[in-house]
Amino acid sequence: MKGNFLRKSRTKGVSLIELMVAMLIGLILMAGVVQIYLGTTATNRAQEGLSRVQENARFAMEVLTRNIRMGGHSLCTGQQTVSELDVRLRASNAGMLPVNGGSLDLARAVHGVDSAADLWGSDEPGNLVAGTPALRLMHAEGVSTNAADESFQGGNFDISGNPSEIDQGDLVMVTDCETADVFRVINTTAGEASGTININHAQENDPHNWNEIDNNYNEESQVARFAKRAFYIGTNGQGTPSLYMRRSSGDALEIVENIEAMTFAYGIDTSNDGQVDRYEEAGDVNDWEAVLSIRVAVLVRSEEVLSEARGTTYDMLGQETLQFNDRRIRQLAVSTVSLRNRLP
């Protein structure tokens, strides 16, 4: 009986060596679990960062291509052209537009520069990234409508409906494709005839118009909202490079952040056959009316450092090569956009 008791007692418990082996195995398993967790987390962060980069690239290109496509749109079609736009604004509400009887040269309704500072001179945005290119566009936007008056001059006229939702404070363009005017709407009311809208743009004190329309338009004249916009790279309050749009009013709107670089190339028709013969940098364009399309490249980066450090190089339309050796994810988006108002 005593021998059996001793044998049973020897089988109880775990030796120190067995305990250490078990702990080692547990640590190895735990290290594996931690490694898998860290790897999965890093992968998820990288995938999330890439998705955000792709989303920002798509949105930036959507905004740019939509506006570029409309560049130079003057409400006139075919061989009808208008070369100058009379501006009826006072200095206090002109923004990027001429004032007190000035005019816009629609031959430069599409105009780019290799250095954004050249687009504004002393009026450049304070957050502009020096040495980066910029693009300025002017165009009518929205659905146009006809004037409803047989003949009008002065401070009021009716339009046939309001499909582009012209409202108080909007910039509006009117043209008969021989002359054109832009003015700011003071207010809108119901017109005399059913379905018409009366637009008031009378000469009044600031912040309204400097003078009234003196070109004689008729019911065949086209009316639509008007936009003048410039796109450039600037830094936001956190120092992040972003795509900005400066509007007619002169204020700048941040479109999307982490846009690290942007480049434009301009498709020129040198043979006057309605076809692009070559692409040029802004500084090489001599005739902006000959620009039929614009090629745009946008380089987008991730907000955080996510991947292993490696050297990456990006060709910006053959105009420059950008090289990085940090841990950010980047994507280069390129698109070629035809100017719809200049298609044959």
From TrEMBL:
Record organism: Aquisalimonas asiatica
Record InterPro entries: N_methyl_site, Pilin-like, PilW
Pfam family, one: N_methyl
Alphabetized SUPFAM superfamilies for the sequence: Pili subunits (SSF54523)
Name the record gives this protein: Type IV pilus assembly protein PilW
Residues passing through the membrane, by range: 16-38
Keyword check for tRNA-binding: no
Annotated GO biological process: type IV pilus assembly
Keywords: Membrane, Transmembrane, Transmembrane helix
